[in-house]
Amino acid sequence: MASCHDTPAKIKPEKIVVSTSISELTGPRKHAPSPMRTVALIGPPNSGKSTLFNRLTGLRQKVANYPGVTVEQRAGKLAGGHGLKDITLIDLPGIYGMNAQSEDARVSIDVLRGEMPGTPLPDAVLLVLDATNLSRHLVLAAQILSLHLPTLILLNMKDQLQERGGSVDTFKLAQELGTPVALISAAQTAGLDAVYRFLEETGGKRQMVQLPVLQNPGLCRDWAVQVGRRSDYQAPASPAWTRRLDKIVLHPVWGPAIFLAIVIGVFQVVFTLGQGFSDWFTELIQRGGEYFAAYIHIPWLQSLLLDGVWKGVGSVLAFLPQILVLFFFIGLLEDSGYLARAALIADRTMARLGLNGKAFIPLLSAYACAVPAIMATRTIENKRDRLATILIAPFMTCSARLPIYTLIIAAFIPNKAIIPHLIGLRASAMIGLYILGFAAAFVTARLLKSSVLKTAKAPFVLELPQYRWPTVQSITMRLYDRAKVFVVRAGTIILTCTVFLWGLAALPVHGGVISNIGASWLADIGRFFEPIIHPLGFNWKIGIGLLSSLVAREVIVGTLGTLYGADPATHNLTLQAAVRGDLTPGAAFALVVFFAFAMQCTSTLAVVKRETNSWKWPIIQFTYMSGMAYFAALAVNQISRFI
Amino acid sequence: MTSGTHIAAADPATALLPLHKLARGASAVLISIELGEEETDHLGLMGFFPGVGVTASNKAPGGDPRVYRIDHSEIALRNETARHIFVKLDVSEQAEK
């Protein structure tokens, strides 16, 4: 017991606001100027911490990454007319304890010790705990309190505690812990005044409270149970609704059926509605560009603004509908509590990839587009699993691959049926390409998970939170937040790349007129690379197509159209006929295989950079995927010559 | 210590059982976790440590992972982890139910 009770838990510091009830904390306030600048918000996952953060800061949030890690830093100025507007609230990652093995916990420890570069030592801490689960969460409280920062403990989910017949004496608990305690409901905005009250009155004074240093979880638990008992903590009754719902949702037959219905539904909506919105948006942006183009009379400037900048803006914005649609559903699934059940059901399947159940939804979404999918990996807590998922997501056959697949299949594969009226040759070729992408993902995942991303000895532990109604505010905040992060962080990279590639395709300028793509620097590079791609069966035109498709895979179709259209020999042919005349069947097959594997998408690379907070992973990913694409295409073309 | 030695005990009330063998709805007391320090600490933070009461709850299709209830929290563990956690059937609690 020594490690848990090195010091008596009953400490009565002199100048501490100790609440007896909410009303005491929310009584008349003294408006003394607060010297506080930074306040950290911390708590376990599912404690309602994010809801509280949104309530306290509103839209005044900033998202960044902590230096050198993938953990997101969320900070915001305190909202509300409380004379505390200069206080910055930092939302630390949700953690169960200060276990230094996890990146999230390490970041939290560093911030709370003032050792995180660029983040000042917090003047105070708001610790959010789930009031319905106090015994377990008090372990974290002891660890946080041992850092000796002025701390307010917020027991969240007051409504649920009381509804289910639970109770706690916050006055006694405050005495036990030597720090103020308030019972709140972040979702119902109840009791939040206690936060302002604490921030005004504590005024950045460090509390000289000695709290136990907790090492052994069992002893900590004993300590937590005792503290709970002395605070008259009455645990609430079992959440009946959650139990009843789980009987259906995790039923051996209905469970998987509901799971499939939900994931297929989400995929369908992202694929059809999201894609539909994207197409509509792209069209709108193009029309808008053409409208303004009429007012610009200098051809090169017109091309720069229209085909470079405006197209770049367009390709950034075109991703937004899919991102918003996917995150709307992920928000619903996560906030309601279903996502954890889905992860449970999918876990066994994903375990074969060396991943866990939480990777399922991101990977499925990657069939529509890897960009929102990679952003959705944020729900995977295990960093190595998350990274592995990010690295394999672009192998899933996204919708941008379909134009080139369709073109090549239509040009080279006869429209015959394998089974009349059921499966055609062309459809099976398409399915084959989907399988090929999945196989590449599978092999890559197994490779990664057995080598560089081998999971350290952290077992897969998944808490199933209670079901809750998602709130409009929470979903809206999430959508706003993701859209902003994507446009600001990834968007700038995408725009820069688009303009750069436009430059290569349009320069040099002769007498104020930009080059045709066939006479551009890009074409020079394409011809320069021809010897390298020649063994794949590709000529310089395909080479230019491959280079131009670095912006986005579908661009190759447009580029080939321009190139064959400008060539007198193929001028009058349809694109299909021109491609058929220019490529051997082996080379055509090699081309689609190349596209199945290659990372021809700067937007994905930009998002990977943003999500992993380093250029290292996008560079590794690009090199690996391009290498795999090259050698697979080489093999296909060379083998086909002997058939 | 291997699971074999635990299961060999004759009296069902005192026999140690790997956690994943706990029948759905049955309650037990956690006796030991035969895993490395890091894993044991991680499980401890989630509420798994000797002396705590555990009830087997729902399970994923195919029986892996399984969900365990500690207090009112429901926590899923893969069988590969649960097989290293040993429990003793809680006869008194079963009688209550």
Describe this protein's structure.
The complex is a heterodimer of chains A (643) and B (97). By secondary structure, chain A is of the alpha/beta class. Chain A has 3 domains: 14-237, Rossmann fold (3-Layer(aba) Sandwich), CATH 3.40.50.300; 255-283 and 322-449, no CATH class; 487-640, no CATH class. Chain A has helices at 22-25, 49-57, 103-112, 134-145, 158-163, 170-177, 193-202, 217-230, 240-249, 254-293, 299-317, 320-336, 338-351, 360-365, 370-376, 383-392, 402-412, 425-450, 472-506, 521-533, 540-548, 555-566, 575-582, 585-597, 602-612, 616-640, and strands at 38-42, 61-65, 72-77, 88-91, 124-130, 151-156, 181-183, 417-419, 423-424, 461-464. In chain A, the strands form 2 sheets. Chain A has a 7-stranded mixed β-sheet with strand order 2-3-4-1-5-6-7, sandwiched between helices. In chain A, strands 8-9 form a two-stranded antiparallel ribbon. In chain A, α15 (370-376) runs parallel beside α25 and α17 crosses α23 (575-582). Chain A is elongated and about 90 Å long. The N and C termini of chain A lie far apart (76 Å). The model of chain A is unreliable at 1-34 (pLDDT under 50). Chain B has 97 residues and is an alpha+beta fold. Helices cover 25% and strands 33% of the residues of chain B. In chain B, strands 1-6-2-3-4-5 form a 6-stranded antiparallel β-sheet. In chain B, a hairpin with a 6-residue loop joins β3 and β4 (66-70). In chain B, 44% of the residues are buried. Residues 1-9 of chain B have low confidence and may be disordered. Classes of the chains: A alpha/beta (643), B alpha+beta (97). The interface between A and B is large, with 40 and 36 residues.
